[in-house]
Amino acid sequence: MQIPLPKIDLPRLPFTPEQASSTAGHVDALYLYLVAITLFFSVLVAGLIFYFAVKYRRRTPDEIPRPIAGSLPLETMWTVIPLLIAMTIFVWGASLYFALYRPPRDAVEIFVVGKQWMWKFQHTEGQREINELHVPVGAKVKLTMTTEDVIHSLAVPAFRIRSDVVPGRYTYVWFQATKPGRYYLFCTEYCGTNHSGMGGYVVVQEQKEYQAWLAGGANESPAAQGEKLFQSLGCASCHKMDVQGRGPMLAGLFGKPQKMEDGQEVVADEAYIRESILDPQAKRVLGFGSVQMPSFRGQVTEEQLLDLIAYIRSLSAPPGAGGGTINTAAPGNGNTSGIAPDTQRMNPLSPTAPRGPQGAQNTNTNTQGSNRPPQ
Amino acid sequence: MSAADTPVNPMNPAAPAAPPRADAPEWRTRFAHTNYLNAEYGIKSWLLTKDHKRIALLYLISITIFFALGGAYAIAIRLELLTPAGDLVQPHTYNKLFTQHGILMVFFFLIPSIPAVLGNFLVPLMIGAKDLAFPRINLLSWYIYLVGGIFTIWALLNGGIDTGWTFYVPYSTTFSNTYVVAVGLGIFITGFSSILTGLNFIVTIHTMRAPGMTWFRLPLFIWSHYATSLIMILGTPVIAITILLVALERVAHIGIFDPRLGGDPVLFQHFFWFYSHPAVYIMVLPGMGVISEVVSTFSRKNIFGYSFVAFSSLAIAVFGFLVWGHHLFTSSQSVYAGMIFSLISFAVAIPSAVKVFNWTATLYRGSISYDTPMLYALSFIGLFTIGGLTGLFLAALGMDVHLTDTYFIVAHFHYIMVGGTLSAYMAGLHMWWPKITGRMYPEGWGRFAALVLFVGFNLTFFPQFLLGYMGMPRRYHAYAPDPLWQVLNVMSTAGASILGFGLLIPAVYFIWSMRYGKFAPPNPWPATGLEWRTLSPPPTENFARTPVVTWEAYEYRPVEEMEVIGAGDAEGVQPVGGTISR
């Protein structure tokens, strides 16, 4: 569920960072509202204190004022009014939170791995960066993040976004940059000796500049690297592409609910695949209860795990397998876009490119399809 | 200072005092009556005392030492942040500085400060009891505090700790090469002191109230200490278990928090904040109790809406246990959990607002004096209001995403902890100093110091709100070389020096006043609590006979009509005349 935010055009306030994302203005608007409330009540309380302190100052040492017990109407008033005001802040804050943490379906995905004390970024086109993240202006970008060691937290004040990066799980945050420039990128969860050095910049570029940057020094896409790993780690000997091997077939699996031995149903998302590689016995697919897949814990890094996930996600279902291809997977998995890695270089991250699942699928068929399983 | 040279019998200023004992130093025998200070001599009489008042003084001394040490760390932190580059200390050293500042201030100053010093001293006096319910346990709790504290200081001096006072895993369990287990053990031990104090207060308040001292005649100080004690005994075991689990994970790799062993690092955060959020209320609720007493006394008015203020303390104690998740809005907690925690966090703001409004309304048509405790109390109300309102920013989900882990958080909780708790502690120390020591502090210096602290405090922490919104992360040894950021940091450091200076002034005049201060009458302000109906300083047994309470809380009458139930030399019931004149 994506809550649409109303359009807000707020000028940059003093003592605030640049507004460089589609949500920054909304956060600033809420800030302004909160500042106004704070000012109102602080001035009210301080004003009353000053007024009373002067007006009712002690005139003679022995005076004893008349006692006043209290007032139910007043107590009710200053319970109910602050509560109502608090509820408006709650609703506003919560709707903003949903907008900040629910990535839109058509967002392009970038993998992020935190590590003491650097940020590694991995674009679907194959570019890898450290402590600098290039994105084109206007593109919706979803960051899928994890860490190799301790908890980190990725924050870009100019975008008003932040999310902790937690070992052993994937966290997500998204943004749409609206203004070219270089913006601070910080680690904001204390992570050890060089915590304050774990940062850099997000570089927001115009489409043309971004293309130029993209053209230089591209590596293999994560999916292509994942395919190599899939072969070299020997995964392919059990997880066969065309016939049922010892392990479940992986083509077309991503984003689909899977039946487990114990009866529960699990959606095969990033977290599930990660767990199945590192701890295969945790959730066993129905019909494979007796298979003893070895754990790959300690043999693959977090980045390689992301490569493997990108590869598995790029596999479409074999012909006749029933369900659609992964790119037309059930709505709601939130991971349908930006996946056709080998097509991205043609029109990467372009907000005008066909971004919908169908569009990605179409372009996919026109390329050499090096990642696709033999059919 | 002629008054200081002659012993004065507060019961009867004209009567000559008993002559000093030949074997005792002169200053010990100045008081005309036998009181808890001069009843016994010698170091043993202090270290083995069961008198709640002496134990309060033992706490006062030890807490002051921890506070000074924590303050020294703060000064070092602020000096490092004068410039954007990390040029004063090494990053590793800086990380230890802020960690140790936090640990000392939270666990060894803020949590015990008001309950262990003022609470210990005043709870039995205020309810008309001779002592706490379990005097030996009370002494034991001080020893536990001291052992935990010495253990922690030993660990700090022998290498220190760099995990942040929050001990987040897996950094603390797997990656930090510092004395995590030792410091954790120190905090673990000290926790028992908290639990025992809380238990003692609850039993005392339930069972030892004087005849006629009904629940709704209790001073609000007692209500707030009652609520605090509930949190102490319910919450502290959780942090103890959590620290134990961190130690086990670190030593034995049991796999509860480490994801590589199948654990969950976010589970730690839930455990930690399940205690540490209510702990915020352990720190601030007793302060609210102090403020209720001070505001009432120095405006000579009963507290407006007594029962609302009393029950708001309990409401805070209960709701305080349900909001820990608001520390985890960006920690990958589910958005729905975030919503519920946000909602309850807004609810917990209401009882605090109710207190602020009631204190303000108490001033209405009062007789307001500007004595030092009142200056601290009024600045408490203002600063706590700002601290509380900025809490709304952080309870608002979408806003918190931008603000958490920045200097905005640092500013917010220092407004509550320093602007709130420390102001209240200072207000309370000044208000009850005459009762504790039998001497007046110098009023002029007191007011001056209160003003200096107010200015220094705001200059230190207000710029940090702005820095936080601009994005400066907390716990940063070096920060981005933005000129505006540096200007604000320089302001903050300048404010910290003023703050430090402002704290030295009371330290000096309090010590000075113990020898040279004017003798205090039993009820110098005057105030209405039972503690003001005994001598200053009180005799060991507090009252000559059990007082019978026939009046409501905060019922102001001419001071001549408030009988003094003394003891010892001035036994029996005697009226006491006049307030101190200035």
Question: How would you describe this protein?
Answer:
- The complex is a heterodimer of chains A (375) and B (582).
- Chain A has eight helices and twelve strands.
- Chain A has 375 residues and is α+β, with helices and mostly antiparallel strands.
- Chain A has a five-stranded mixed beta sheet with strand order 3-2-1-5-8, with helices on one face.
- Chain A is elongated, with a radius of gyration of 27 Å.
- The relative contact order of chain A is 0.12.
- Chain B is built from 16 helices and two strands.
- Chain B has a two-stranded antiparallel ribbon with strand order 1-2.
- The model of chain B is unreliable at 1-21 and 567-582 (pLDDT under 50).
Kindly summarize this structure in a few lines.
The complex is a heterodimer of chains A (375) and B (582). Chain A is built from eight helices and twelve strands.
Helix/strand layout:
The complex is a heterodimer of chains A (375) and B (582).
Chain A: H1 24-55, H2 72-101, E1 108-115, E2 118-123, E3 128-130, E4 132-136, E5 140-147, E6 152-156, E7 161-165, E8 171-176, E9 181-187, E10 199-205, H3 207-215, H4 222-232, E11 257-259, E12 265-267, H5 270-278, H6 302-314, H7 341-344, H8 357-366
Parallel strand pairs in A: 1-5, 4-10
Antiparallel strand pairs in A: 1-2, 2-3, 5-8, 6-7, 6-9, 9-10, 11-12
Helix pairs in contact in A: 1-2, 4-6
Chain B: H1 2-5, H2 43-47, H3 52-80, H4 91-127, H5 135-157, H6 171-175, H7 180-207, H8 220-252, H9 265-299, H10 306-319, H11 335-363, H12 372-395, H13 397-403, H14 407-437, H15 443-470, H16 483-516, E1 564-565, E2 573-574
Antiparallel strand pairs in B: 1-2
Helix pairs in contact in B: 3-4, 3-5, 3-16, 4-7, 4-8, 4-9, 4-14, 5-7, 7-8, 8-9, 8-10, 9-11, 9-12, 9-14, 10-11, 11-12, 12-14, 12-15, 14-15, 15-16
